[in-house]
Each structure stands twice: as C-alpha cells, then as structure tokens.
C-alpha cells in the first residue's frame, strides 16, 4: 500500500488539518501517517485556542516515522511558527522525502491566524526549494510573493515570483477570487492555475455558492499528495484532485452552526464503499 505523511495541525472540529488529511488519504486508498505540529481548539465557528507542539517533540515524531516508514509522498499544512517551518524543512531534507506538497497555511477560513508572520522567509528559503508542488490561495500567494495580502496582482505574476523560490510547480488557487463578478452567461467556474516554470495550465471546476468551505485547502493538498503517491504525474494528479474537491464541496454536510466542512468521504460514498 502507498504511504503518505501529513505534517500539520490538529483541528478538534475534524474538518481541516490532520483530521481532514487522514480522512482524505483513506478515501484515496493510501495509508496516512501524521506528525502533529500544533493543537487547535477549533470548530465550524472558528479557532478558539492554539498550542504549538514542543519543537523537540515534533522532531521525535519525525524521527519515529521516518526511521520506520518510507513515504511515497508527504504534505505540510499548518506549521504555526518559524522554528517549526525550519525544523520541518531540515527533517524532509535529512530523510530525502520525494513528492512533497506544501500547503502554506496562514489563515483559517474563519479569519483566524495560523502562522506567525516572521515564518514567511523560512517558507521561501527553506521549505519551498524542497517542494514538488506549493499550493497557496490568493492571499497566501501575495504574501509569499512579497505583496500586501489584499494587493491587486495578476495570479500568473504571483506564480512566477513564487516559482523562483525553488518548487517544481506552483498552484495558485482561485477559491477566494470574486468569481460571480467575472462570469457572464455561463455556469460560474472557479479556476486554479498551475505553473511549471514555463507554461500555465488552468484547472477549472464548477463554482459552488456556499460558505461551507472549511478545510478545502487541506483536503485538496492531501488529495494531491495521495494521487502523487499512487503514481500519477503532477498534471493528472491535480486534475483528479480538483474533481475530488469540487465534489466534496458540492456534497454539503451539516456538522456545526458555522462554516461547515467539505464532505471528505464523497469519493467513498460515490463508490458505495462508505456503508
Ligand atoms: N466555492 C467554491 N466552489 C468550488 N470550488 C471551490 C470553492 N472554493 C474553493 N474551491 C476550490 O477548492 C480548492 C481549495 O481552494 P481554496 O482557495 O479554498 O483554498 P484555501 O483557501 O487554502 O482553503 P482553506 O480555506 O481551507 O484554507 C481549490 O481547488 C479551489 O478552486
Ligand atoms: C489545524 C488547521 N489547519 C489548517 C486550517 C486551514 O483551513 C485550519 N483551519 N486548521
């Protein structure tokens, strides 16, 4: 069985972070393991508290899993502090991890901060050079590229600037763009752009008008890592993952009274395997 590692924070509410990643890996039929970087007290309404895990203990988790298990792919999510970004980069380098997907989580859907601002340089200098794919949303892309979070910048320009930090591919996600204002007469689409240093490829899917997008980014990056582990090349992995996240958003589930999570199990349900 293919094995995938997630290095991320715990979401007690179960919609994002480690919990989203392991569910997503499971429905992709790959084995998921985890290094937990931070604990969040969180639900569909927001993040009530955050406690980063002690740095030495994060290092112990890395050594435990890497000394025993060879991972076909890995992903990072919430890394919380500059020191955790640096440690994570060092461990991936030390253990020569291939197929690394970096989701540079900075802010939760609820608006709560999940990364200290001084960690951005560590992402640029240490982690991005090790990544196969980096998957910023528009705000994260602006910050990584050195702009203000709300600056009006062409996503292709952002992708070019981020590519220069050394990842093999950059996926700038379009989930937070003003989609409805840009469509005329055709079903609204949400488009992510993939850059490989030479060409741009658009990945489009149906836009779903909903606030229930808690965990979309985590779920997408866990799906990409799973598809890479299964042997798909990057373009095909992203196409499959885009289809999966669109279906997971569309299949709304009622969990709490705030921004509900996507349905990570949608693939299972469609295959009739969930029951
Ligand atoms: N309303 C929507 N309808 C359809 N697809 C969407 C919608 N919102 C986001 N997506 C898709 O979900 C994926 C994740 O994108 P998004 O921009 O939401 O990530 P994110 O902001 O990192 O997520 P998170 O809010 O979990 O941090 C992308 O493929 C994006 O196109
Ligand atoms: C633990 C965690 N990681 C990532 C996100 C981003 O959605 C979140 N809300 N919580």
UniProtKB/TrEMBL annotation:
Pathway where this protein functions: Cofactor biosynthesis; thiamine diphosphate biosynthesis; 4-amino-2-methyl-5-diphosphomethylpyrimidine from 5-amino-1-(5-phospho-D-ribosyl)imidazole: step 3/3; Cofactor biosynthesis; thiamine diphosphate biosynthesis; 4-amino-2-methyl-5-diphosphomethylpyrimidine from 5-amino-1-(5-phospho-D-ribosyl)imidazole: step 2/3
Keyword Nucleotide-binding: yes
Keyword annotations of the record: ATP-binding, Kinase, Nucleotide-binding, Thiamine biosynthesis, Transferase
GO biological process: thiamine biosynthetic process
Gene Ontology MF terms: ATP binding; hydroxymethylpyrimidine kinase activity; phosphomethylpyrimidine kinase activity
Residue span(s) of domain Pyridoxamine kinase/Phosphomethylpyrimidine kinase: 11-263
Catalytic activity field: 4-amino-5-hydroxymethyl-2-methylpyrimidine + ATP = 4-amino-2-methyl-5-(phosphooxymethyl)pyrimidine + ADP + H(+); 4-amino-2-methyl-5-(phosphooxymethyl)pyrimidine + ATP = 4-amino-2-methyl-5-(diphosphooxymethyl)pyrimidine + ADP
An example Gene Ontology CC term for this record: cytosol
Keyword GTP-binding: no
Pfam families: Phos_pyr_kin
Group of enzyme by EC: transferase
Matching InterPro entries: HMP/HMP-P_kinase_dom (IPR004399), PM/HMP-P_kinase-1 (IPR013749), Ribokinase-like (IPR029056)
Enzyme Commission number(s) of this protein: 2.7.1.49, 2.7.4.7
Superkingdom classification of source: Bacteria
Similarity field: Belongs to the ThiD family.
Protein name: Hydroxymethylpyrimidine/phosphomethylpyrimidine kinase
Encoding gene (name): thiD
């Amino acid at each position: 069985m293919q094995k995938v590692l997630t290095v991320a924070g715990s979401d007690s509410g179960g919609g994002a972070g480690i919990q989203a990643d392991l569910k997503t890996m499971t429905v992709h039929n790959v084995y998921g393991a985890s290094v937990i970087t931070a604990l969040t007290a969180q639900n569909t309404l927001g993040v009530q508290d955050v406690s980063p895990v002690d740095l030495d203990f994060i290092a112990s988790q890395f050594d435990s899993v890497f000394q025993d298990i060879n991972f076909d792919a890995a992903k990072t999510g919430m890394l919380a502090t500059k020191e955790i970004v640096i440690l994570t980069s060092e461990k991936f380098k030390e253990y020569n991890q291939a197929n690394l997907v970096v989701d540079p989580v900075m802010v939760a859907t609820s608006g709560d901060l999940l990364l200290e601002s001084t960690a951005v340089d560590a992402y640029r200098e240490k982690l991005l050079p090790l990544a196969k794919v980096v998957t910023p949303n528009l705000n994260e892309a602006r910050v990584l590229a050195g702009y203000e979070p709300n600056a009006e910048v062409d996503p292709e320009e952002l992708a070019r600037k981020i590519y220069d930090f050394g990842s093999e591919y950059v996926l700038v996600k379009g989930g937070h763009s003003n989609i409805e204002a840009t469509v005329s007469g055709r079903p609204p689409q949400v488009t992510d752009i993939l850059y490989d240093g030479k060409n741009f490829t658009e990945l489009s899917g149906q836009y779903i008008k909903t606030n229930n997008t808690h965990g979309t980014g985590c779920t997408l990056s866990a799906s990409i890592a799973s598809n890479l582990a299964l042997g798909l090349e990057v373009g095909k992995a992203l196409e499959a993952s885009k289809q999966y996240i669109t279906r997971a958003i569309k299949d709304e589930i009622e969990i709490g009274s705030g921004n509900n999570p996507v349905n990570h199990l949608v693939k299972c349900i469609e295959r009739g395997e969930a029951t």
